[in-house]
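Justification of resources, computational component.

The compute hours requested in this renewal are based largely on the per-chain cost of generating structure records like the one below. Each record pairs the submitted sequence with a full structure-token output. That output is archived, and it is also reused by downstream analysis tasks.
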Amino acid sequence: NNFGVGVGNLNGSVTVTTTSDIIGTDGAQAINGTLTLQAGGSITASGFFYSPISIQMTAGTTIDQGSTGQIFSDGQVDLLAGTGISVNDVQAATSVTLDVTGGGITLASGNQIVAGTTVDLQAAGTVTLDGSIDAPGAITVDTNGQITQGGTGFVTGGSTVTMTSSGAMTLGGAISATGAIDLSSLSALTQSTSGTLNSQAAVSMLAMGGQLQQLGNVTATSNVVLFGLTGVTQGTSGVLSGANVDIDSPQNIGLNQISATGNVDVQAGSAGGITQTANGVVSAGGALTFQAGQTINLSRVNAGGNMTLTSTGGSILDNNDTVSPNNLNVQASGNLSMTAFGDIGHFTNPIEIQVGGQVSVLINGPAGTHHISLSGSTGDGQVHVIFAPPGTLFRFNNLVLLIGIQGPDRAMNWFRDREKREYDFWSQDMIGDSDTGERELLNRRRPSRRPARTPVR
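The structure output for this chain reads:
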């Protein structure tokens, strides 16, 4: 029932067709034509196969090169299988296409796919990329299953690298391209600590159905976009650099090291907060924006332009004093705007700032005990309180304590507060100055409860 192949043709093409299996331990060569193998069962391609024009193999079940198979073509290579393809060594002067309609593709460690133009891998099951793929054109991997790349995997694309999976995507090796790198999973997407992405254009990593973990190294000369449906995290090892960096998730976002020559925009949904690791640093050459529904835990953020930090349902808090007491949290060459529902800093742990422009703060939560606690410097020597509900406790540089201040935009005279009656302490019944120690009770005249006498007529 099986058909063994060990043939050659010096003058023309070679075509082998069977409804059963093809065992090509001795290989096949078409010196001046095409090479075509068609099997209703499996193809064992463990020998040497060559064609100057093209090689096409079609199997009803599997195509397996084992550990010795070699497929070389001065043209293109097309492998089509029903349940699986296992690659040892496939090389083509033009394109390489692997298509599995009901199974997966396996490229083991040390094995390779090399193309002169493009590589296209299509599968219904798991695609394992522990070997190397090299092509100067586009590299595409698309599967209804999972994509798994171990630490020995290398993907090098001359133009673009595009990987899409319905299942989880796990990347532990190296992926590089002169063009864009686009990675998308309908489940979770994980770049392990050993993984590297390097693009001379843009990078996108999208986990459309789960969490995005960017735990390795990502470098792009253009923009970087990260999205995770159930969260985004860099852990304690993730490093990312690019032009503009956009990170979005409806859930929590965890940041470690980010460097952008342009802007940084981090957006968490109403159910998500933003937390930097204790040693984390996020730097933008331009503007920096953090927007979250829950608490923002700051370690270190730098901006060459304006900075906007907003927590619509939580607080903005210092997160790096465990590394070094009074460690700088915010450095901005432009203006700083901070808005929170709860606290901005804490009375015993202020947010350390160094701002070249104006600083504006706003608390939009209900009346109660809120804190606005800052230390450092501002460009105009003032902090502008846009609004703070009654009961808010203010502190700046250990010099000023303010209670019960409300807006609109009351500029606090912290640096110029050296004269008597430049009051910096307000409450319902008292004003005072912390430099002079002066306190003055606000006397209020109460209306008489007795009715006025009726004048004598």
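The first strand starts at residue 3 and ends at 4. Confidence is low (pLDDT under 50) at residues 413-433, 439-448.
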